[in-house]
Amino acid sequence: MLAKTLCAAAESAGLVSLRLAQSLVLLALYEACQAIYPACYLTISRAARLGILMSWHDRDAQQLFKFADSWSKREEQRRTWWTIFVLDRFISMDTSGLPFAAPEPCPDELLPVNDEDWVLGKTVPSEPLYTACFSSITTLGSFARTCQAAHMLGKVITHKHLKTKSSHDILHVVQEAQSLNRALNSLQISIEEQSLSNASSSSASSLACASAICISAQALLYGAYGCPDAPGITSRERLTHETELQSISVQGLRALGSTLAPKLAQIQSDCPLQARCFYTACSACSWFIREDDEPQMKDALVTIVDGLRRLAERWPIASKYFRLCSLE
Questions:
Q1: Average pLDDT of the chain to the nearest whole number
Q2: Residue 169 CB neighbours (<10 A)
Q3: Which of 10, 19, 169, 193 is the most buried (most CB within 10 A)?
Q4: Number of domains observed in the structure of the chain
């Protein structure tokens, strides 16, 4: 309560600064990890508004305050804004159509630089978010991968809300879902390859957050199309594309529950954002066990529950998900 009071006092005094935005980010992260809703949604929204006020969301926006006069300060602003973006998308995962606090990245948006270079204070090039391929002279860090995953998560959340609106062309919606599936699969493969290429437990642990968000986005997408009686499709003629997408979704949920999530659960990482991913994977495993009684899913479920139990020892949000799994 003291932290919230101090932040509110600073805002009331008209303070607009990087440090205040970072304080709100830490406060929102704490509230999310402690499962304090809707406080975390409101707190990250305040941080996003501060960032927008300082034009972090768009370098070409009108500058109401002095522009960062050094590379390191601008990079710190960029990393803070991306953290706001990641938390905003993650917290919005289970909201019912509520708007995002942080807008979609601009076409020329840059990703954070490699984490090791940032810690060492090296001035290095930044990779763009939107690109056909990345440069061979730079290496994406784990935070940049997390930003990519959060960006895709936001796309899936928006798509899921769009799917429920009958005013949109269903063929376009389904084709967009197929494109999202391909993009998510490519991102997941890239994260896994990067984790394997470094061949160290610390590398795998640092990429666990990105992988968890990516898997959560996949689960959200597959959950919207895996059920043949999903809302919005029973009152109209079905398309063959929807049947194909349902098959893709069921196979995706199977891979998520039997392979992707168990691998992630075996990584010794304390990232609290994994809790939502593990809970979703547990639900998928339970569904396949009820329907098909698959032995592989039973083993996977044990591994995932162990990972969730490990997180529950530290994070209350994981404890709540663990109790929900026990009820199922």
A1: 88
A2: 8
A3: 10
A4: 1
Question: What tens digit of pLDDT does each residue of 279-292 get?
Answer: 999 999 999 999 88
- The answer to whether position 112 is within a domain reads no
Q: Is residue 67 part of a domain?
A: yes
**CA separation for the pair 288, 299 (Å, rounded):** 12
The letter for the amino acid at 231 is P
pTM over 0.90: yes
List the structure tokens of 320: 């709540």
What amino acid is encoded at 168 in this protein?
H
**Residue 45: is it exposed, middle or buried by C-beta count within 10 angstroms (0-12/13-18/19+)?**
buried
pLDDT tens for residues 218-249? 999 999 888 766 555 545 566 777 888 899 99
Kindly tell me if the per-residue pLDDT of 126 is higher than 60: yes
Looking at the domain assignment, is residue 264 inside a domain?
A: no
User: CA angle at residue 271 from 268 to 277, to 5 degrees?
Assistant: 95
Distance from C-alpha of 281 to C-alpha of 297, rounded to nearest angstrom: 10
Q: For residue 113, is it within any domain?
A: no
Provide the domain limits for residue 61.
1-99
- d(CA 207, CA 92) in angstroms, rounded, equals 21
DSSP conformation letters of 282-296: HHHHHHHHHHH--HH
Q: How far apart are CA 302 and CA 101, in angstroms?
A: 37
261, containing H or E segment: helix 261-265
